[in-house]
Design a protein that fits this description.
By secondary structure, the chain is mainly α. The protein has helices at 3-16, 19-42, 56-65, 82-89, 100-135. The radius of gyration is 19 Å and the shape is elongated. The N and C termini lie far apart (39 Å).
């Protein structure tokens, strides 16, 4: 973990109770799932293509626990992103042809989740801005 990441996580945990870091993870997982869903839709007419998906909840749970994180023996080693590691472990085992209606539903749910998390994070920063502005009066 770099010094900037350590400082950011410390400030987040002290000021926001870790909500910003958790929100960042949720947005990252949502973006990854969005890409999979879009890929499924784009390949709907591809012969033999089987849809891919992963459980958002399972990946978030593993990312928050940082399951799969490798121990680094040297500070210069590159760390793995827990979201990437978790998503690779949690792909849906059920492989079947793509159903457009189902994919569109997943797309809508994922977009709603992304907007909700973004709004929650934004509200935290708006509250901080208000506290700073009101403190200057």
């Amino acid at each position: 973990m770099s010094i900037n990441n350590a400082i950011t996580k410390t400030l987040d945990s002290r000021m926001f109770g870790g909500i910003v870091e958790t929100g960042r993870l949720a947005l990252d997982v949502s973006m990854e799932r969005q890409g999979l869903i879009q890929s499924n839709i784009a390949n709907i007419e591809t012969p033999g293509y089987l849809g891919q998906d992963f459980s958002f909840a399972a990946v978030m749970k593993n990312a928050l626990r940082q399951r799969g994180e490798l121990s680094r023996t040297d500070a210069q080693h590159i760390g793995l992103d827990p979201v990437s590691v978790s998503e690779n472990l949690e792909f849906n085992r059920e492989r079947r042809p793509v159903d457009l209606d189902e994919e569109m539903q997943k797309l809508s749910e994922n977009q709603l989740l992304f907007q909700t998390v973004s709004k929650i994070i934004g509200n935290r920063f708006d509250a901080l801005k208000l506290a700073i502005d009101e403190g200057g009066k």
